[in-house]
Amino acid sequence: MKPVVLKMGGRLLQDRAALDALLAVCANIKQRRPVVLVHGGGDQVDQWLAKFGFNTEKIDGQRVSPAEQMPVITGALDGAVNAEMVSRAILAGLNPVGLNLSAGNSCQFSVNNKLGAVGIAKPAEPTLLNLLLEQGFTPVFSSIGIGAEGQLLNVNADLAAAAICQLVKGQLVLLTDVPGILDAQMQLIPTLSTAQAAELVTQGVIKGGMKVKLDAALETAAALQSNIVVAGWQNPEDLQNLMQDKPVGTCIMY
Ligand SMILES: Nc1ncnc2c1ncn2[C@@H]1O[C@H](COP(=O)(O)OP(=O)(O)O)[C@@H](O)[C@H]1O
Ligand SMILES: CC(=O)N[C@@H](CCC(=O)OP(=O)(O)O)C(=O)O
Fold first, then answer.
1. Candidates 3.40.1160.10, 3.20.20.70, 3.40.50.360, 3.40.640.10; CATH matching 4-252
2. Region of residue 93 (left: phi > 0; alpha: psi -120 to 50; beta: else)
3. Which residues form the Aspartate/glutamate/uridylate kinase domain (predicted)?
4. Does the first or last residue of the chain, that is N or C, have fewer Cβ atoms within 10 Å of its Cβ?
């Protein structure tokens, strides 16, 4: 059975009840098919950088990440947030294993020098991931990677989830703090073709973090020849319904 690759944004981790409810659904799904979690933590990185006295900015939804900030960014994403995610997943019975994108050479990276130490992740070696899934573990990935020169890299978590999903040829679900992609009237768009998506980007309706999510979805849809769903995490039944092939959130068509 195809693994489900679920991306969870950092905002979800600040809502303990919502996170636990969603992880309970994941435990249910895992009885039938493998589950892989990839988490963000953008809000937590904001808080950590501020505490350490750093200013931070995002360009087109991606954080400018100077090398000297990477120990703090890594501490937040691959330290505190990953451990918190793993701890809640243990309680949900998911048998989790915390990892970063370089574990077992899962991903390799080029560097988006314009943004500093920001990695562009490509799927590389699936052996470790397949081994963990075969043995009934739930891999829990942070979006930190290690570059060819051994440098720490910050990867947008939607793009990290896209690479991991391509690695295991899974079903990608991007969960976020809105019910899906919204139109100019703030209404949910149930299905989106590549051409419609491009038009909404040109019109400035899809922007920032959602534009990155769309790019992650379009890239994965093309690579795996499958539709990708962007949905909200507020309502855990949505994930359950999605697993039963009911329409939920925005379905991005390949
Ligand atoms: N067309 C759109 N539809 C929905 N959200 C959008 C759209 N354009 C921009 N956004 C913004 O994208 C955000 C989701 O992206 P992001 O903040 O990166 O979330 P996450 O942390 O879940 O990855 C929404 O909260 C919203 O502010
Ligand atoms: C390069 C880049 O933008 N990295 C992101 C990684 C975390 C992330 O994507 O978190 P959310 O999913 O919670 O937004 C960042 O530093 O915020």
1. 3.40.1160.10
2. left
3. 3-230
4. N
